[in-house]
Design brief:
- By secondary structure, this protein is α/β, with parallel strands linked by helices.
- The protein is 44% helix and 18% strand.
- Strands 1, 2, 3, 4, 5, 6, 7, 8 and 9 form a 9-stranded mixed beta sheet that branches.
- Helix 6 packs across helix 12, helix 10 runs parallel beside helix 13 and helix 12 runs antiparallel to helix 13.
- The chain is globular and about 50 Å long.
- It comes from Butyrivibrio hungatei.
Length: 309
């Protein structure tokens, strides 16, 4: 029987982390360990005091490792978590994603054939999710199982490399062969890994039977900052993104979302949505060209300001 560890980076956790851990402990396949890579020990202590409970006291399989905010890196911090694991598979999650049922781990694990580097879950919107973000979940997370390899680039484009560490399970043996997540990255470590895996002959699977609840209602400026960092990550990894465009997928999603608003009689939402998309596009294009910008603007535009220190 395979063993699975769960790795969760946390930052300023709140009581919802207790709910997430309880849900994971109740999975039909219980994690061997839940490894929490927490940024800033003081924030963890504050969480324990406010919650009135320490999950490490409640469960015997919790490992908590602290890093400073200066040390945190989307790729390397996750690599450090993997180094604490000896399981066959490890599940990367974020602190704001919650399993929809008790079969999450089992559903992802059964998809990890010998040549499958990673399998990622379907994301469902939270009850408070806005309509645009709700529809984007349908666009990015369809009903059908998808197995993707390098041969699919001509057909799927950038979506060949799509994978999300909001909830994705990895084979440790392939992870070791690939060399893990990129060791310094502003963002997008999951897609960089997936791209490397596909280029080395492995597959990435999307498993709709595995579901988590996860969504955000970002403001225009939050979208700008997030997409700036996305653009930076793609510029920093030309070996993955140099000959593949993501803008065609973006245009496709915008068109489908606008048509969806019209179809459901919510056409009044279209102007704000178009403005939001403008912020996304501007952030992305500036990020793609960040090397031409003054450093002060790069830092101001970025969501992850510590990355530039």
């Amino acid at each position: 029987m395979y063993k699975v560890d769960v790795i969760i980076p946390t930052y300023r956790p709140d009581k919802s982390l207790l709910e997430l851990i309880d849900n994971l402990e109740k999975q039909s396949v219980r994690p061997e360990h839940i490894i929490i890579m927490n940024t800033e020990e003081q924030y963890w202590n504050d969480f324990v005091n406010k919650a009135g409970a320490n999950p490490a006291d409640k469960y015997d399989n919790i490992i908590v490792e602290h890093v400073s905010k200066k040390e945190f890196d989307h790729g390397e911090t996750r690599n450090r978590g993997v180094m604490l694991s000896s399981a066959d598979f490890f599940l990367m999650m974020t602190q704001d994603a919650f399993p929809r049922d008790k079969a999450l781990i089992a559903s992802l694990a059964k998809s990890l054939d010998e040549d499958v580097a990673a399998a990622y879950a379907r994301q469902y919107p939270r009850p408070d999710c806005n309509l645009a973000e709700r529809y984007s979940r349908k666009f990015n997370y369809p009903n059908e199982f998808i197995r993707k390899t390098q041969a699919d680039v001509s057909r799927l484009g950038i979506k060949t490399y799509f994978c999300s560490n909001v909830c994705a399970m990895y084979r440790r043996d392939i992870y070791d062969k690939i060399g893990g997540f990129t060791h310094k990255t502003i963002f997008n470590e999951d897609m960089v890994y997936a791209g490397n895996a596909c280029q080395k002959g492995y597959a990435i699977c999307y498993v709709p039977e595995a579901g988590v609840v996860h969504s955000h209602n970002y403001t225009c400026m939050q979208q700008f900052h997030r997409n700036f960092d996305l653009g930076v990550s793609q510029t920093d990894h030309p070996e993955i993104f140099g000959n593949i465009s993501s803008e065609s997928e973006g245009k496709k999603m915008v068109g489908q979302t606008v048509n969806h608003f019209r179809h459901i009689g919510k056409g009044y939402l279209i102007p704000h949505y178009i403005i939001m998309c403008g912020f996304r596009w501007l952030g992305y294009k500036l990020g793609r060209n960040y090397q031409k910008l003054p450093q002060r603007l790069v830092t101001a535009f970025s969501m992850n300001k510590e990355y530039w220190v």
